[in-house]
Amino acid sequence: MNFKKTVAGAALIVLAAVLLGPAANFPLFRKFLRGEFRESLFSSAKYPGITLISLAEAEELFIRRDALFIDSRPLRKYSAGHILNAVNVPLEDNKKKLNLPLNIPFEKTIVVYCEGGDCQESLGLAKVLHGQGYKNIRVFTGGWAEWLRTGHPTAEGNDSP
Length: 161
What we know:
Radius of gyration: 21 Å
CATH class of the largest domain: Alpha Beta
Structural class: alpha/beta
Number of helices: 6
CATH topology of the largest domain: Oxidized Rhodanese, domain 1
Oligomer: single chain
Shape: elongated
Number of domains: 2
């Protein structure tokens, strides 16, 4: 008899979760249905030149000086602190037409980062770069927050070339 009560209780909990979960998250479902999450979705088949990388991979590229680091955050955040020698190319300023501060060869490895966590600016800028012909793009998913937290070299101010 105890087993039947346990199963009935578990079934009731599952049913409540199935019914209450979507109701509690209705605003998210509406955003999804309107297509607001499409920009943050990433398909490696659609963007074959873009690779998501970890802190260890970003460190290696930084130490070897094999890549150009691009900070996709707004200028005020970049000026407050950024990865040493990174250039600032804010996504907001480059959504329609890419405005790079340097002549970057298309074969150059580029590491794009933003704040980290759920920030999507780096992926958005990587897509813009890909659309302009760059094919060796890395997106450092840990971003500025992880770089700073782990004590890697940083700079302040607007020293972007």
